[in-house]
């Protein structure tokens, strides 16, 4: 079967590319191929009672399916060039911001109306952070919440399903170059197109590596982010989250001069498992619905590691550490901060007696047996630094879940159109190594669809 455009991956980049094709060039035939299921069928079997740990489903419902890994995230769209990727380096700062704002408008029109737009602009917390050797990054943040984000995705799918052909549970086994376009080989058949837009996200990192190797597309190594997810009483961070919701705070450690940063803050949220390439890591969600809110706030503390020659496999490094956690804990490990500082493992009794009730059923253990000393020292330094602006962060009962790993695709060599050395083959979203967020990935999908539409007009 032939299409004008094949989109590989139905995450934010793929969805917004399809949306833009429908608006700008509706005569194009579009086929979307996705490893996971429809949004309605995405269900993680972990219920905390009968199923407490990951059972390694054939495809992870949290990571794959319509909406991508962001479908069950906190639904935070950060409108900024300061973090979330380097899209602006390819298309310019003003263009990148305008596309993120355009995406925000689409989300509002599809069920996100009434949600709050937070901003760090003019915040007194910037001064407080600077006085404590911390840096608060600038951003506007649209918080949809996991529940409203789901509604937005439902509405987008309802609008797109009659325009594009969606092939769910249909992984593309091989991508080939043909004389006049591209060929996607799947278990259900072979499909050809004039244009191909690849948007496979972080979970498609290994697939992307193979495609680039097969087609000899130049790439460069990227980074991996390693750390823990912190869970504590929501009241400790409420003076920040009530005003800013998502506070991106960076600390430069005294000992090693490494940067440690907060990531994915979830006020009154929950901690969840995540499965990437068969490895169980940790993440966090929160909700707009008051009935789903908890008494805890969670956020990640991450240290970025870049590698140079001769070692290039940053993701492999992160995977090996995550596998060690899985080996020791059967999945995610949880430890009280007080136990970590005293050099002892947490056990079920200490977790049970903790004043912070864990929202994820994880295995009590010792993170010092998992994380490298340099990374763990940096995280401990950061916790004490945050304690100066949010007293109580360094309490003994603060919970640390590990490990949290953010895998980044190697950076694919792209031009200003996000196009490879093969005309008509575009790589977008987190799978490109260029974007690292919902807003940047979505904007990259719109941008590429516009470039293709221009050629068709």
Summarize the SSE layout with pairings.
Layout: E1 2-8, H1 12-24, E2 30-33, E3 76-79, H2 87-91, H3 93-112, E4 117-119, H4 125-130, E5 134-136, E6 140-143, H5 145-160, E7 165-167, E8 172-177, E9 182-186, E10 189-198, H6 205-215, E11 219-220, E12 223-233, H7 234-244, E13 249-252, E14 259-266, E15 270-276, E16 279-285, E17 296-306, H8 314-329, E18 333-336, H9 337-341, H10 348-353, E19 363-364, H11 373-389, E20 399-407, E21 411-412, E22 425-427, H12 438-456
Parallel strand pairs: 1-2, 1-10, 2-7, 10-22, 18-19
Antiparallel strand pairs: 3-6, 4-6, 5-13, 8-9, 9-10, 11-21, 12-17, 12-20, 13-14, 14-17, 15-16, 18-20
Helix pairs in contact: 1-5, 1-12, 3-5, 3-12
Average pLDDT score? 93
Classify the beta-strand content into a percent band: 25-35%
Q: Which bin fits the share of residues in helices?
A: 25-40%
- The strand line-up of the biggest sheet is 5-13-14-17-12-20-18-19
Q: Specify Rg, calculated over alpha carbons.
A: 21 Å
Describe the structure.
The two termini are 24 Å apart. The chain is built from twelve helices and 22 strands. 32% of the residues lie in helices and 26% in strands. With 457 residues, it is α+β, with helices and mostly antiparallel strands. The longest helix is centred in the first third of the chain and has 20 residues, at 93-112. A hairpin with a 4-residue loop joins β8 (172-177) and β9 (182-186). α1 packs parallel to α12 (438-456). It has helices spanning 12-24, 87-91, 93-112, 125-130, 145-160, 205-215, 234-244, 314-329, 337-341, 348-353, 373-389, 438-456; strands at 2-8, 30-33, 76-79, 117-119, 134-136, 140-143, 165-167, 172-177, 182-186, 189-198, 219-220, 223-233, 249-252, 259-266, 270-276, 279-285, 296-306, 333-336, 363-364, 399-407, 411-412, 425-427. The strands form five sheets. An eight-stranded mixed beta sheet has the order 5-13-14-17-12-20-18-19. Strands 1, 2, 7, 8, 9, 10 and 22 form a seven-stranded mixed beta sheet that branches. The mean pLDDT is 93.
């Amino acid at each position: 079967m032939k299409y004008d455009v094949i989109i590989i991956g139905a995450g934010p980049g793929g969805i917004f590319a399809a949306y833009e094709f429908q608006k700008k060039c509706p005569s194009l035939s579009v086929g979307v191929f996705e490893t996971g299921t429809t949004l309605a069928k995405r269900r993680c079997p972990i219920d905390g009672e009968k199923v407490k740990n990951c059972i390694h489903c054939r495809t992870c419902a949290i990571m794959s399916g319509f909406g991508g890994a962001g479908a069950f995230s906190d639904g935070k769209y950060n409108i900024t060039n300061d973090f979330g990727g380097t899209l602006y380096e390819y298309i310019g700062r003003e263009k990148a911001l305008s596309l993120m704002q355009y995406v925000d408008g689409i989300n509002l029109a599809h069920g996100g109306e009434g949600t709050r737009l937070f901003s760090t602009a003019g915040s007194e917390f910037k001064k407080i952070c600077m006085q404590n050797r911390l840096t608060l990054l600038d951003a506007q943040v649209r918080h949809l919440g996991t529940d409203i984000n789901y509604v937005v995705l439902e509405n987008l799918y309802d609008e797109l399903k009659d325009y594009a052909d969606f092939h769910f549970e249909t992984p593309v086994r091989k991508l080939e170059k043909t004389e006049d376009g591209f060929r996607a080989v799947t278990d259900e058949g072979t499909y050809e197109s004039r244009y191909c837009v690849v948007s496979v996200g972080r979970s498609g990192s290994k697939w992307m590596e193979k495609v680039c190797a097969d087609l000899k597309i130049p790439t460069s190594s990227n980074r991996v982010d390693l750390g823990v997810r912190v869970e504590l009483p929501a009241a400790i961070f409420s003076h920040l989250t009530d005003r800013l919701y998502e506070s991106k705070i960076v600390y430069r450690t005294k000992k090693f001069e490494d940067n440690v940063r907060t990531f994915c803050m979830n006020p009154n949220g929950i901690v969840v498992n995540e499965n990437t390439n068969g490895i169980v890591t940790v993440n966090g969600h929160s909700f707009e619905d008051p009935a789903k809110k908890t008494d805890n706030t969670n956020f990640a503390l991450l240290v970025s590691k870049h590698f140079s020659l001769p070692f290039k496999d940053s993701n492999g490094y992160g995977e090996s550490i995550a596998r060690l956690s899985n080996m020791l804990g059967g999945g995610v490990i949880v430890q009280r901060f007080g136990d970590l500082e005293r050099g002892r493992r947490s056990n079920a009794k200490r977790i049970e007696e903790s004043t912070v009730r864990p929202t994820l059923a994880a295995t009590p253990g010792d993170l010092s047996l998992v994380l490298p000393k340099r990374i763990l020292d940096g995280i401990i330094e950061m916790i004490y630094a945050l304690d100066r602006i949010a007293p109580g962060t360094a309490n003994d009962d603060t919970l640390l879940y590990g490990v949290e790993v953010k895998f980044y695709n190697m950076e694919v060599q792209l031009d200003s159109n996000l196009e490879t050395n093969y005309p008509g083959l575009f790589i977008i979203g987190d799978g490109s190594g260029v974007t690292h967020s919902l807003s940047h990935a979505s904007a990259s999908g719109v941008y590429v669809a516009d470039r293709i539409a221009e050629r068709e007009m």
